[in-house]
Structure of Serine--glyoxylate transaminase:
Amino acid sequence: MKKHYLLAPGPTPVSPETLLAMATPIIHHRSPQFAEVVAECRVGLKYLFQTKQEVLILASTGTGAMEGAITNTLSPGDTALVVRGGKFGERWGEICAAYGVNFEAIDVEWGRAVQVADVAAKLKANPAIKAVCIQAHETSTGVNHPVKELAELTKSLPGTLLLVDAISALGAFELPMDAWGIDIMVAGSQKAMMLPPGLAFACLSEKAWEFTKTATCNKYYFNFSKELKNIQKNTGAYTSAVSLVMGLRDVLRYFKEATLEKIFAEHQLMSKATKAAVKALGLELFSQEGASDALTAVRAPAGVDGQDVVKLLRDKYGIMIAGGQAEAKGKIFRIAHMGYIGNFDIVMIIAALEVVLNELGYKAPYGAGVKAAEEVLFGGA
Ligand SMILES: *Cc1c(COP(=O)(O)O)cnc(C)c1O
């Protein structure tokens, strides 16, 4: 049987413990037994989001929570400011357009982070902007945007919210919702949260909950006020994704036990090791600034198609990483190191990369990347 490895930015591997937690018999979503599980998840989610607010649990992928963030706080004809530095930034704009919300865009070169001054200038020029929409980590480029600094801007504007897509960020690096003043943070189960795809999360500040009272965008399923009332009673508005929530309880116990501090430090170390290794192989990072601890986006070397790196790893060696999307297709490949990934997974993927690069005609000395990774991960030999 062929061994498979998953180092793509979602879905990510799920631990055997969590898989077993999800294999327990289905319990009813309106039973006291399930209410107990939800009650525990509510506490664990507040720890993970670093918030006092309630975190809503939705049965959808992350995009559903993004859509809900728009429709629950804005109205047709409102204006949002969308930072587009990759595929997921574009998605914010597409959702606005679908609901008749006008948007101004700041187009950021792929591989770069938005300049805080550019956002400040837009907000100053148009005081009617009701929401700034951004990714904490733009997964298509491997770049973190300066969320903390952007929150400094929106905090002092009573009429403007900061909407943060933390789908590939939450659980991988520091993103304290309350301390920074983020108004809406959305997440998904299948990235650094170490769960299968199928759950989304949304958390709103008091300021954002105020906006929900006047928002008139059409909505039915993603009705945050209705979800809030239900989760406060330890249930959901509709049939909960019972098995996934069992898994959620399991990973949240792990987050609490291991502590966010330790988990973030582990991600940072794996990220440093991966980045040092690809540089030792003579490759360049795609991110020109704000390189994320959740993922390493690498420029394919001259003469090598990034898609071929991805395909060879997948088809010959059973290792799944990700290629470039849209305009970055063929130019880059992306190695995710988020969630249930350990130090020796990094050593494995770097070794595999050395092999496929050579097979594709790029001369990478065997062991050069592995050595650099090991030195970061374990200290000098
Ligand atoms: C994966 C991802 C999404 C989309 O999530 P789905 O779960 O596929 O809906 C959105 N934003 C970012 C930053 C992501 O990484």
In short: The chain has two domains: 16-258, 260-378.
